[in-house]
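Quick question about two entries, pasted in order.
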Amino acid sequence: MHPDPIPALKAGSLEVRLAETAAEVDASQVLRYQVFYDEMGAVPTTEMAEACRDFDVFDEVCDHLLVIDHKRDGVNAGVVGTYRLMRREHAQKAGRFYSSSEYDIRPLLAHPKPIMELGRSCVDLAYRARASTMQMLWAGIAAYVFKHGIDIMFGCASLPGTDPSKLALLLSYLHGHHLAPEALRPRALPGLYTAMNLVPLDGIDPKAVQAEMPPLIKGYLRLGGFVGDGAVIDHQFNTTDVAVVVKTDLVSEKYYKHFERTAGPSDNTG
């Protein structure tokens, strides 16, 4: 592993940085397996189940953002949070972006400025109630965005379950209020396309829907994020996926400055 590093950011015993070794990537895959398969009921391949790791071909070319708790160095290398970051250069090595298996992302590929796919986001169960862990991940993403001049982030975000009728309010709200502009709008691939506008908007209580929204999607929306056209049922992961598109200006301004303010200069390095 020879990642192009970002400044390491620290808050107490937590540090966010890119994985630097194969062992650290392995630790991120172990955490992903624990969250996606042990907790959420995803269906592993035989190889994944034997290794107790979530992995695919994209892991070999991407950057892996880690939150490490140095008080837990002896447990899975201290990795308690992770995000997989795939720039256009990484996708060229892999042959495609991960999202292209579910969505037509040609509008994003045509964008003239740098783009980045976010994926495989998860946080250790014991750290999920701590806002600081997710703040650290976002601070790391913001630093990465600064370093590489990323203009647009995108990826597949998940709603729990594979029955769209049980997610009708959430899907309809997202489609009705947060549909991406056509110039940047991914569309679910033919054969995978599941309509999102399932119920009339006038029958939706926005506050009630927002309370049920998964925290990650809610976070993207707070940053002015959009969703693509159509959801995709992912039976392996036991989820219903939506494509999310986020312009990075608010990520940089809101989260990076917020982290600097809350962590304080004594907790930051680099």
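Here is the second entry:
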Amino acid sequence: MLVILSPSKTMDFEPASPASITSQPVFAKEAAELIRHLKKLSVSELEDLMRISTKLAWLNQERFALWEPEFATANSNQAIFSFKGEVYHGLDVQSMQIGNVENSQQHLRILSGLYGVLRPLDLIQPYRLEMGTSFQFGKYADLYHFWRQKITRQIGIDLKESGSNLLINLASQEYFSAIDSKKLKAEIITPQFLNSKNGAFKMITVYAKKARGMMARYILEYRINCEENLRGFDSEGYYFNSNLSKPGLPVFTR
């Protein structure tokens, strides 16, 4: 079984990681290739490309300039401890037992605009590059063109090594679109998280993001290995809603 998550824009490299194990990104060379192209962009070009403020454009230009092709604890941190958005608030890796964190190395993957596919304990350097960014370079029309074949192949390898063809998609559509799901020999399950609002159940993005992280934690802690066992998820008031669920699309409401 393999779980996939999106990264987050917010990163924090300050807290010390309790996990002593580190690994190198599978696509380090590809990330270095992207960095070479990104370094050529001016602050104003980064503003337009990423649709960010001048302040953030300066920050990311500096990040690209300081980025190094060698990953070590002096300049990098493990991915799962570096992302700090709503998904990772829900995952709350700092409070997880170290055995479950280390087990996540085999069963969790984080998709990334810069690194392609990350294992939780892969060392990464600070960056910002969303998968949906319309970055045209070399022969590539955008990041999907650059990554889709590579990511699909790697997810297929990781699924086989996990010992199961079950893929739990907890990534956003922006990132899941980087996978050519038709070429995967996988049973893909995409949980949905809805909240009651004005008498109806709706997907509220900020809550759904946190719920994806909570679901990932539930899977890792309880070593979930089939769709049926996902239904026991009941964190922070969510429960499995059989009336709204469909095959491959379990719905959890609160």
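Reply: The mean pLDDT is 95. The two ends are 26 Å apart (CA to CA). Hope that helps.
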